[in-house]
Amino acid sequence: MGTKFRTTGVPLIISPFASQLGTAVYLIGLDWLLVQATGTTKLLGIIQGIGGISFLFGDILVGGLVDHYNRKRVLVWTDIISALACILGGLLVNNAAPQTGLLIMITLVLNLMVAINFPAAKSIIPEVIPSDRLQRFNAASNTLFSLANIFSPIVGGTLLAIKQIDFTDFMLFNATSFILAAVLNSLIIYPHPHSQPSSKAWYRGLLTDTIEGLKYVFRHGKLVQFMFAMGIFNFIYAGFLLLSPYVGKHNFGGHSINYSLFLTVSAIGGIIGGLRLMFQTNRVKPVSVYREQLIYAAVLILGGTLFNFWTWLLIGLTYGIVQSRLFGSITTFIQDATDDAYMGRIFGLMFLCYDGIQPVGSLLFGGVIPILHHWTYIVLGLLALVAFSVLIRLDKKTG
């Protein structure tokens, strides 16, 4: 491929799109087939909750890997391992009665690789992209990421409409996407390869580096706020993620096309939010992002109260918009506030908080949703309203 293609960061934008498309299609199949087989979100919540443990381990491990090892190689190898896990799972799974243990193991491996890959991708960006282009690049990356979420329900819905489709097909599709991502990441021209650390540095990365990263975060009040924002958003999202297929199964006729449409509308919202951020000339401020979350909270409360098909789609659209703007902006906030030497550790800690809350949310809402049904949206809205109101007050105090 041409040098211009490789030096402009294009592979770094496209590779997450490729892997996310496969992963999103796989999760659509997993969510729908499990809910269809059991009629409840409990098993799905257990798988996602236990799988979330590997996110925690990966977030602790990633600081030492990303700050001391070659970040490009970390990206490539995590994609390769993810592909191998999906291929092995596709060969071993019993499509007639999928083994819970196997699904948990595959989820553990995939979540671990994502927990390492995502911070590595965010950490390498400032080394490849000039600082004055970071906000636009991050917005473009998130927008294309959202585009994968538009195609995924179309692809997933089409696959689900095929009567012969099974878990193996979804796993192999995901494996193909990871192989493509690995090829694209291998094309990145990386100007600052990290030298191989000594064994002493490796052990430091697991404990001492994490402690040093925490000290760095608490010396910078804004980073603490960003960590809290990511954590509370993912706690709410854990409920949102489980509630969506449940509503699609138990409301509006239980047709898979409705769930696919909801996901498509959410992804369109992500495109809208990403494009707005990408073409925004002024720098986004944290308080603006927090206020947008209050709008999202109001829509959740309104949609849960006046629940129907159209308010459900409005919830999905609003989520897509605020999610893309939150993550497109907060990534830039963190990159601007962090020295490159600490970038891997800080992103690891940020995602430790982000991922650490997900098992709690998955296990909690997995049991709550069958009781409250669509009224769960009101609970999620109230949580967002309180949390981001607190963040706005903290932002004003810290200036």
From TrEMBL:
Which PROSITE patterns does the record associate with it? MFS (PS50850)
Read off the CDD domains from this record.
MFS_MefA_like
Major facilitator superfamily (MFS) profile domain mapped to chain residues: 1-194
Which residue ranges does UniProt annotate as crossing the membrane?
12-35, 41-62, 74-93, 99-121, 171-190, 223-247, 259-279, 294-311, 346-369, 375-394
Topology term for the membrane: Multi-pass membrane protein
Query: Entry's SUPFAM superfamilies?
Result: MFS general substrate transporter
Q: Name one GO molecular function term.
A: transmembrane transporter activity
Name listed for the protein in its UniProt record: MFS transporter
| Annotated organism of origin | Levilactobacillus bambusae
